[in-house]
Automatic annotation (TrEMBL):
Keywords: Oxidoreductase. Belongs to the aldehyde dehydrogenase family. GO terms for molecular function: succinate-semialdehyde dehydrogenase (NAD+) activity. Residues 21-481 form the Aldehyde dehydrogenase domain. This is NAD-dependent succinate-semialdehyde dehydrogenase. It comes from Sphingomonas lycopersici. GO terms for biological process: gamma-aminobutyric acid catabolic process. The active site is at E258. The keyword Oxidoreductase applies. CDD domains: ALDH_F5_SSADH_GabD. The keyword Oxidoreductase applies.
Length: 485
């Protein structure tokens, strides 16, 4: 597709296996749709089981050399990737907007966030420090060394097509692992552009491989059943996460899972209302709500509730909805038709149970997949929108009376990814933060994502952490050496 920005190279449309982009024998293609128009943008090669195994061959062949590459050299290559990616920020943002539908502002932010993982893990690659201890008996020493775990399969979703890829590739490479990236079939172009940027920035052949698959089940299953593969890192739905954990069980593959969320956003009545609204806009509307960290349920204490709803309606109602690629757009398209149908279903269910639509509330007609910013007030317990991720620009708001009630409601979900709390009393907020069952909670902030922080969930939101030093250790094995010394 043309982006209006001079392309540094044509976006590859094949599969990256070893040192080349190849077009598999069968010649099957996956059509990439522009969610803002419903039109086809282009098509990419569709990989099968044989291509998956060829990618494992390439990753396995490159593994020993990459693991033996000096940490400083690995760091230099990752830093080169950071600079190369930032040099193409505008071009990559346009690709993201075109294939994902998100507003350009969101897309630019994503590119910067995505590139940050290269910089962070360039800095971490030279800090994979082990441990030395004296055994309690005094008889020997305990040495612990962190070694690369081996070939990694990285499966990513469509909502952050750049950042979800780099969040996995960067720590894998820093640790000394080679990998196979399997991007979402809706948004492979961004990942393919990033993979090509990495290749040109000096990542050796076979260290990063990329396959697409319109039928990902059999291809990923074959890869996971190959004993040379030792790591699976997946970001996507809890449903697919469960399937992959079962697949990974057969070969006992170390698995990191970033799954669904159902983030509560709690506003206590002593909160700074302006700050809470600003935070709500970020937590709800970043990426038009298509984020697993997106605020899904707003619990607002009764004393501040009506003013909060009024202000939220005002701010959400002022957002410009349109094709991501248009400069004025603040809320872009949803990924596909199923997505807007799901949002419509959740809104209809909430309304049928007594919620009031204060803004929006119905998918927009037309060829693109647009849903307007929407606010539902007085959402009743038992509404599906409180249990399922809406993954769109809909805020469901409910009042509560005391903090104990808010905590109980916030924890009444199988998910436990992100949460948000607003209060002027830091002690109160910290107390709530400790008691919410989640992997990440923001106090008086609407954003948790940071390459330097451990991102991940508890309960059925996932296993393991990405980002920070924690993210590096997911790609390492602790080797214990007992020394008689
Ligand atoms: P979403 O609901 O956000 O589209 P999914 O969990 O369906 O999320 O998809 C996330 C990623 O998982 C995508 O890359 C998709 O191709 C991949 N995927 C879906 N089903 C399977 C499967 N059975 N095995 C391996 N990967 C899968």
């Amino acid at each position: 597709p043309t982006t209006g920005i001079p392309a540094p190279f044509p976006i590859p449309t094949g599969l990256l296996i070893g040192d080349a982009w190849i077009d598999p024998a069968g010649g099957k293609r996956i059509e990439i749709i522009n969610p803002s128009t419903g039109d086809m943008l282009t098509s990419v090669a569709d990989g099968g089981v044989g291509d998956g195994i060829a990618a494992v061959d390439a990753a396995a062949a490159a593994a020993a050399d990459w693991a033996a590459t000096a940490p400083r050299k690995r760091a230099d290559i990752l830093m080169a990737c950071f600079h190369a990616m930032m040099a193409q920020q505008e071009w990559l943002a346009q690709i993201i907007s075109l294939e994902n539908g998100k507003a350009l502002g969101d897309a630019r932010g994503e590119v910067a966030y995505a590139a940050e993982f290269f910089r962070w893990y360039a800095e971490e690659a030279v800090r994979i420090n082990g441990e030395v201890a004296i055994a309690p008996s005094g008889a020997n020493r305990i040495l612990v060394q962190y070694q690369p775990i081996g070939v990694a399969l990285l499966i990513t979703p469509w909502n952050f097509p750049a950042a979800m890829a780099t969040r996995k590739i960067a720590p894998a490479l820093a640790a000394g692992c080679t990998c196979i990236l399997k991007p979402a079939e809706e948004t492979p172009l961004t990942a393919m552009a990033v993979a090509e940027i990495m290749r040109r920035a000096g990542v050796p052949a076979g260290v990063v491989n990329l396959i697409n698959a319109s039928d990902p089940g059999p291809v990923c299953s074959a890869i996971l059943h190959d004993p040379r593969v030792r790591k699976l890192s997946f970001t996507g739905s809890t449903e697919v996460g469960r399937i992959l954990l079962r697949e990974a069980a057969d070969t006992v593959i170390s698995s990191s899972m970033e799954l669904g969320g159902n983030a509560p956003f709690i506003v206590l009545d002593d909160a700074d209302l302006d700050a809470a609204i600003d935070g709500a806009m970020v937590a709800k509307m970043r990426n038009a709500g298509e984020a697993c960290t997106a605020a899904n349920r707003f619990y607002v204490q009764r004393g501040i509730h009506d003013r909060f709803v009024e202000r939220l309606v005002e701010r959400m109602g002022a957002l410009a909805v349109g094709p991501g690629i248009d400069a004025a757009t603040q809320c872009g398209a949803m990924i596909n038709r199923q997505s807007i149908e799901k949002i419509d279903r959740l809104v209809a269910d909430a309304v049928q149970r007594g919620a009031q639509i204060r803004l929006g509330g119905r998918a927009l007609a037309g060829a693109g997949f647009f849903y307007p910013p929407s606010v539902l007030a007085n959402v009743r317990q038992g509404s599906a929108i409180l249990d399922e991720e809406v993954f769109g620009p809909v805020a469901a708001v409910l009042p509560f009376d005391d903090a104990e009630e808010a905590i109980r409601l916030a924890n009444a979900t199988e998910y436990g990814l992100a949460a948000y709390v607003y209060s002027a009393d830091l002690k109160r907020a910290l107390n709530i933060a400790e008691r919410i069952e989640c992997g990440m909670i923001a106090i008086n902030r609407g954003l948790v994502s940071d390459a330097a922080a451990p991102f991940g969930g508890v309960k059925q939101s996932g296993l393991g952490r990405e980002g920070a030093h924690h993210g590096l250790l997911e790609y390492c094995e602790a080797k214990y050496i007992a020394v008689d010394w």
